[in-house]
Specification:
The protein is mainly alpha-helical and 174 residues long. The protein is built from nine helices and no strands. Helix 6 packs antiparallel against helix 7 (127-142).
């Protein structure tokens, strides 16, 4: 199956009458359905309008649900950080060091400079981060083109690693 072509620009240029004609011509309605619509005095344009309204409402609902989910995840992350701060007063300082080290690693990687020194620092101070970076490098070898696209799309290296990590684990676990 091929990808659907987005014709929204074409449809935006059509007048309501032309759009109605286009929809009427391009929707295949079996004869029994046509007869049913006629017998019950149901307008096809009303059906199309209702379907469009329903789809738009579903899209709005999906967007709201996504926003709620993101807010929920953000709150959980903030709670975890606050909890870690209570347990370890130096947690925030460690977090800043990890972010700085990760940024330095990605800057060196993007500029083609050697990154072994940064990896050794991660291994000593942040073993979990070292594991993520090792997995990232494995992923990057196999997905060089995708990395370039993500690099242009996401400028923050930490967010880029998080997104790659999610993609990597999602595909790896399937």
């Amino acid at each position: 199956m091929g990808k659907r072509i987005d014709k929204s620009e074409l449809y935006a240029k059509l007048s309501p009458e032309e759009l109605h004609t286009h929809v009427r011509k391009n929707i295949s309605i079996p004869k029994y359905m046509d007869a049913f619509l006629y017998e019950h005095n149901i307008s096809l344009s009303k059906l199309v309008q209702n379907a469009i309204k329903k789809r738009m409402l579903e899209e709005q609902k999906t967007e709201v649900e996504k926003a709620i989910e993101l807010d929920y995840r953000r709150r959980i992350a903030e709670k975890r950080i606050a909890e870690e701060k209570r347990k370890d007063p130096k947690f925030e300082q460690k977090l800043l060091q990890a972010k700085q080290l990760l940024r330095q690693y990605f800057n060196a990687l993007d500029q083609g400079l050697p990154v072994e020194n940064y990896k050794q620092q991660m291994l000593k101070g942040f073993p979990e981060l070292y594991i993520d970076i090792s997995r990232f490098e494995e992923w990057k070898k196999n997905n060089e083109g995708m990395y370039k696209i993500l690099k242009e799309e996401i400028h923050n290296p930490i967010e880029r690693l998080i997104r790659i990590k999610k993609e990597y684990f999602r595909r790896k676990n399937k």
